[in-house]
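// run 5 | inverse folding | seed 20
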């Protein structure tokens, strides 16, 4: 029995499970019921697991292969994230969210269903597994801190030799999978800039230090980080998404606050971007006689796929679904906290196609009308399961 022969058997389980999860999203670091539910599904299969003792958030299950002696062989972890978003669903689907103001608008419901499908498949072919497979169900991905949280619980990460995960992706047609090597997703950092001036009447600017003018100059000067400080062959983004200052049309305030995000694909770009930002913020404010402070949080690292694992994943996808399923996809500027697992272990992150105009599955992730073509998720389950087997045998 081969994993790919199990796709048809588990197709309806994976799709139905995803729709059930979809109706009951929980927000980041509140996924207690979701964790219990995953545990119940694992109980039905017979796979042992450990729920995080901390707050009952997230769990790690373990399948011991029977193709090797106990404690022989390596360990690979397959990961799914499990949180929903504070979005009010507007899809009109029969299985839309039943939780007011919460929605699985990123597709993490699909990730749980895919991994539980893979769990079922792996359990059936455990005599083919050489070593062991951890199934990691991670809370809090949307905060960027969920992976670090999971790494701080138990010893599963220390015992893991490699890690594989994926994200359903709306821009990729259903049936396609991308597992390319190298840069795949951007770092996703957050910063706040606080500008301090001197308040006064709007008619007498000469008696003030106007923080709004300083903030405006900072916004413009920050544009040079990408245009003048970044290697044109690399990519980066510096976006200000938030400005707050003042309360009235005729008062110059004493403070302005800016907030934004920085994105880039090489870990070494962090120091350059943060350094340039620091310099521009401090010196622009000084040039206008004011002061400004940068608070920069290097939150999520870039997702960079290991070359050897990516090559193996390419073989796995070809074997399980045929060459036609493999799709080339450009890297994306979205972030993923899966990257934290990649810092010390070889890892590979896949994009799984869910786009389909016939089902109106065309709207972007995190949007209220986000829809998923979930008819072929079991194919992804088979890729996860077979990849674990292939990697352990390699
Ligand atoms: Ni996501």
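// decoded
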């Amino acid at each position: 029995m081969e994993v790919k022969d199990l796709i048809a058997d588990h197709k309806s389980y994976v799709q139905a499970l995803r729709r059930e999860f979809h109706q009951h999203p929980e927000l980041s670091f509140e996924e207690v019921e979701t964790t219990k539910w995953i545990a119940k599904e694992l109980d039905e299969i017979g796979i042992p697991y450990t729920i995080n003792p901390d707050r009952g958030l997230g769990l790690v299950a373990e399948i011991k292969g029977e193709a090797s002696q106990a404690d022989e062989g390596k360990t690979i972890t397959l990961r799914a994230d499990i949180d929903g978003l504070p979005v009010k669903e507007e899809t009109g689907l029969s299985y839309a969210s039943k939780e007011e103001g919460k929605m699985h608008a990123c597709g993490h419901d699909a990730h749980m269903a895919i991994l539980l499908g893979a769990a079922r498949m792996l359990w059936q072919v455990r005599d083919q597994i050489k070593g062991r497979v951890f199934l990691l169900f991670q809370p809090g991905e949307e905060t960027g801190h969920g992976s670090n949280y999971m790494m701080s619980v138990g010893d599963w990460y220390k015992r893991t030799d490699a890690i594989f995960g994926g994200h359903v992706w709306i821009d990729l047609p259903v049936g396609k999978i991308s597992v390319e090597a190298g840069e795949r997703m951007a770092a996703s950092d957050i910063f706040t800039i606080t500008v301090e001036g001197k308040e006064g009447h709007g008619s007498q600017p000469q008696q003030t230090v106007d923080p709004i003018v300083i903030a405006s100059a900072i916004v413009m000067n920050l544009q040079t980080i990408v245009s003048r400080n970044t290697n044109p062959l690399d990519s980066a983004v510096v976006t200000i998404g938030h400005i707050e200052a003042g309360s009235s049309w005729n008062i110059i305030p004493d403070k302005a606050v800016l907030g934004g995000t920085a994105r880039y694909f090489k870990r070494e770009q962090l120091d350059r971007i943060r350094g340039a930002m620091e310099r521009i913020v401090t010196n622009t404010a000084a040039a206008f006689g004011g002061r400004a402070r940068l608070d920069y949080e290097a939150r999520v690292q870039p997702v960079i796929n290991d070359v050897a694992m990516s090559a193996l994943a390419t073989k796995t996808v070809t074997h399980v679904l045929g060459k036609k399923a493999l799709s080339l996809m450009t890297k994306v500027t979205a972030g993923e906290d899966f990257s934290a697992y990649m810092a010390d272990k070889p890892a590979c992150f896949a994009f799984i196609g869910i786009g389909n105009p016939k089902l109106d599955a065309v709207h972007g992730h995190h949007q209220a009308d986000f829809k998923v073509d979930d008819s072929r998720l079991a194919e992804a389950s088979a890729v996860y399961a077979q990849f674990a087997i292939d990697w352990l045998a390699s």
